[in-house]
């Protein structure tokens, strides 16, 4: 077994014609017990890429949290903030502690601090029981919209509510012309400005994204109207709710939904709403 350190070497690759190419390789071995970050993705789409201020993200790795998963419990407006330490685990974005929603050995759900705004990239470090990981650098952009799905795959049937607040699905489809509620993240900075770890209250008006316009297409058609586009009431800051009216001429079945905030869309996702 290799001890911790950085190892370099050369690998020879031979083709069927006899040609040989030498390829230089570097292997970094972390000390046993050191957290290792493998990927940082959108918490909604589970796609890697740039992060945005206030975005709910999912971090995958090895040894990044406790053996027994833990979930934050202080997500209420009365105590006001999401904790940045959960069972001796912390996550920092450029040295700013991130609010933590869920931690486990291989997965952490966190909220990107609003302090990353204006930066092009930031180092992310996870500390588990006092042992820090190596820095994992992620790019930063103003908005990274993605819609939440009902499944844990980040795609398919959206986490969507019908007008009566029931869960939308193939056996409970929404009528054309009715209002549906979509839930997303990656909306970026807010007005009034969000503070890292904040909880959205339940009384209107609630904070809204700085980036505009916000639009939704369903089945390739623009929503007839956007009734509401702002932070989800009584939830963590970084969870966006959009109430949109379905076009009256929508065909029945699973129709694709695309969310656009400013000039950015969730086009890398395949999210659908069930229409009857």
Please specify the SSE layout and strand pairing.
Layout: E1 5-14, E2 20-29, E3 36-42, E4 56-62, E5 70-71, E6 89-93, E7 96-97, E8 100-103, E9 107-111, E10 121-128, E11 131-132, E12 136-139, E13 146-147, E14 156-157, E15 179-185, E16 190-191, E17 208-209, E18 214-218, E19 221-222, E20 225-231, E21 240-245, E22 253-261, E23 264-265, E24 271-275
Parallel strand pairs: 14-24
Antiparallel strand pairs: 1-2, 3-4, 4-9, 5-8, 6-7, 6-10, 8-9, 10-11, 10-12, 13-15, 15-21, 16-17, 18-19, 18-22, 20-21, 22-23, 22-24
Describe the structure.
This protein is mainly β and 276 residues long. It folds into two domains: 36-139, Sandwich (Immunoglobulin-like); 146-275, Sandwich (Immunoglobulin-like). 0% of the residues lie in helices and 42% in strands. It has no helices and 24 strands. The chain has strands spanning 5-14, 20-29, 36-42, 56-62, 70-71, 89-93, 96-97, 100-103, 107-111, 121-128, 131-132, 136-139, 146-147, 156-157, 179-185, 190-191, 208-209, 214-218, 221-222, 225-231, 240-245, 253-261, 264-265, 271-275. Strands 14, 18, 19, 22, 23 and 24 form a six-stranded mixed sheet that branches. A hairpin with an 8-residue loop joins strand 20 (225-231) and strand 21. It is globular.
């Amino acid at each position: 077994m290799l001890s911790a350190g950085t190892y370099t070497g050369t690998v020879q690759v031979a083709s069927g014609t006899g040609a040989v190419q030498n390829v230089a390789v570097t292997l970094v071995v972390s000390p046993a017990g050191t957290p290792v970050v493998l990927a940082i993705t959108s918490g909604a789409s589970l796609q890697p890429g740039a992060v945005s201020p206030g975005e709910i993200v999912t971090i995958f790795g090895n040894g990044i949290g406790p053996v027994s998963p833990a979930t934050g419990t202080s997500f209420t407006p009365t105590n006001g903030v999401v904790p940045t330490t959960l069972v001796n685990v912390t996550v920092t974005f450029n040295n700013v502690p991130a609010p933590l929603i869920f931690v486990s050995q291989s997965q952490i759900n966190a909220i990107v601090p609003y302090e990353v705004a204006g930066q092009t990239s930031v180092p992310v470090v996870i500390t588990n029981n006092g042992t820090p990981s190596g820095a994992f650098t992620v790019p930063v952009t103003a908005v990274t919209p993605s819609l939440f799905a009902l499944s844990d795959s980040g795609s398919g049937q959206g986490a969507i509510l019908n007008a009566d607040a029931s869960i939308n699905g193939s056996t409970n489809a929404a009528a054309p012309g009715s209002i549906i509620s979509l839930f997303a993240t990656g909306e970026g900075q807010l007005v009034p400005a969000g503070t890292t770890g904040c909880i959205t209250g339940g009384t209107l008006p609630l904070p809204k994204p700085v980036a505009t316009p916000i639009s939704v297409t369903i089945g390739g058609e623009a929503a007839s109207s956007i009734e509401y586009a702002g932070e989800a009431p009584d939830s963590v800051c970084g969870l966006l709710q959009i109430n949109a009216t379905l076009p009256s001429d929508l065909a029945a079945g699973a129709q694709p939904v695309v969310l656009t905030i400013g000039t950015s869309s969730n086009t890398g996702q395949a999210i659908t709403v069930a229409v009857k």
